[in-house]
Amino acid sequence: MAKGIFVIAEQRDGALRKVSFELASAARKLADQTSDEVSAILLGSGVESLAAELGKFGVDKVFVGDNAALEPYVTEAHAEVVAKILKDNDAAIALFGASVQGKDLSARVAAKLAGGLATDCTDVKIDGGNLIAVRPMYAGKCFGEIAFNSTPAMASLRPNVFAAVENAKAAAVTKVDVAVDAQKSKVLEVQKDTSGKVDLTEANVIVSGGRGMKGPDEYKILEELADVLKGTVGASRAAVDAGWRPQKDQVGQTGKVVSPNLYVACGISGAIQHLAGMSSSKCIVAINKDAEAPIFAKADFGVVDDLFKVVPELTAACKKLLA
Prior knowledge:
Blueprint: E1 5-8, E2 11-12, E3 15-16, H1 18-34, E4 38-44, H2 51-55, E5 61-66, H3 75-88, E6 93-97, H4 100-113, E7 117-121, E8 123-127, E9 130-137, E10 142-146, E11 153-157, E12 172-175, E13 205-209, H5 220-228, E14 232-235, H6 237-241, E15 262-266, H7 272-278, E16 283-287, H8 295-298, E17 301-303, H9 307-322
Parallel strand pairs: 1-4, 1-6, 4-5, 5-12, 6-11, 7-11, 13-14, 13-15, 15-16, 16-17
Antiparallel strand pairs: 2-3, 8-9, 9-10
Helix pairs in contact: 3-4, 5-9
């Protein structure tokens, strides 16, 4: 009989990513209802020392696959190892992050195990001993509850939605013999972001600009506000398509799905594709001179005025308040 809740941890350059702790906390909450163990799968090279960090967030056991073939991340190799661990341990539930890596990996693992996968979930719960995953549908217009008829029941969880709650456990480490078959692809080069900015999917504060920014040079006022709030800058698809911001900054259905504590939308009308990517933000502030802009229907706070007047004033007020 399938048992155990598994989380697939993400690490980069020898450091666990925030979403790993969120997954561990979500799994711990489920396990406390089912009396199951929480296990984590941690892959890479020289990563065994990271297992203790996962234990701080409720993980009982960590399966460590330590092999040079697993660093850096390559879909084929990681999917092969993760699928084998889940199958060998007859896992009941497997949770991935709905990050770029997690979305890539979870789909491949689900295919290998011929199992069901609910993606980009904003909630998970136990009903009658079975996992129920909740995810937005139809561009966020409604939420669906997904049940599973196979094991492991697999779901990818949206970053920044689930709180990382410390619940210290003495995580036992199980080393996994990694035998990776010859791969069809390999990483030739990794181009790292040297800006020092937090990735949009993990940012607590995002200041986004849209078509109303009028051009790429005007984004400097958003950069200033983001720096004061210790956040990062995003953009709508219209701004990215116009070449004002790089594609990595795009928020929306065809960009990155984000869930920050604070989302400031500047000059963004609020097309459904954009709303689908940021509607789960905890607090949304909209600044737009068009009082009829759809973004105001989703915003918690709205300012109907010229953003080029409002944003600098807001930046100055925040500097004074946070000094």
